[in-house]
Every structure is written in structure tokens, then in C-alpha cells.
């Protein structure tokens, strides 16, 4: 997850975990992006919307990690070859669970229009993620800006880049 560092400048007392992450922003024909809703297990009273994705396995190409994470976190299958990008890259640091995470994150976009009856499910979540993700929803960047519940100030800018990359809403 990409929760921004909420510390007040003091060093985190949590063990540091560095990881390389692949994230994916599915975009539908209406220009909406599929996001997940969840929270830090240490702070369940402060939920937020965030992008799909997670750590790449050693030696795993980022585009393949993004497709794998998409399936694990939503139950939806996309081919790595259908991913566009990268559309954004960043390094972020934040506290989540037991760790102070430092993540090198690469974002990909994919056009995704769900077929009738196709829906998101959380059956592939890792044990640590179970109980910290409760739903998924399609958001326009403008609606999420207005709602004010994005994980970071940058998320809606990254969403716009994904929408532009796949021609969503056109």
C-alpha cells in the first residue's frame, strides 16, 4: 500500500522494509479508475483509497508483478502485455503495519471494462491484507479529489496519467 508517511518528522521506531513495487490502475471506458479502500492495521479509523499493487518477487519483471498483483488483489485477470506504461514512478516512505516501508513504485495502466457478471473479489489477498481492505470502486480523479480520501495528494494526478495513457473516457 502507498500510505504516506504520517510521522511528524521524528524517525519511525518500526523496522525499515525496502521493496520494489508494481502498481496497476485499471481504467474503464468512462475514464474511471478502479481503486481499493483500506487502512493501516495500526490505524483502522483512518481509511483511504489506494491503487492496486504490491511487492515484486525477486527477478520478477515489474509488468508481470503488476498483472499478478491485479489478480491477487481483485480476482480480475489482465495480461502483462496489455499493461501500458510505466505511467508514473516514485519512491515513497510510510508506516504500515509493523514496518516503516520504503517503496520504489512503478505504475502501469490497463483498459478494463468488466463483462456482465464479472466483479472484484478479495479471495487472493495475502494474510496481512485480509481485514485491511474492504471494498473496491471506480473513481474519476475529479470525484476522488472532491471526496478527499485518496491515500496521497499525488494519486489523482497519477490516475489522470493512467486515463490519458489508455484513452479512457474518450
TrEMBL record:
Q: What InterPro entries does the database record attribute to this sequence? A: NUDIX_hydrolase-like_dom_sf, NUDIX_hydrolase_CS, NUDIX_hydrolase_dom
Which UniProt keywords are present, listed alphabetically?
Hydrolase, Magnesium
Cofactors that this protein relies on: Mg(2+)
Q: Where is the Nudix hydrolase domain?
A: 17-161
> Can the keyword Hydrolase be found in this entry's annotation?
yes
Pfam families per record: NUDIX
Does the keyword field hold Coiled coil? Answer: no
Protein name per its UniProtKB record: NUDIX domain-containing protein
Q: Which organism is it from?
A: Nocardioides abyssi
Q: Specify the taxonomic lineage.
A: Bacteria, Bacillati, Actinomycetota, Actinomycetes, Propionibacteriales
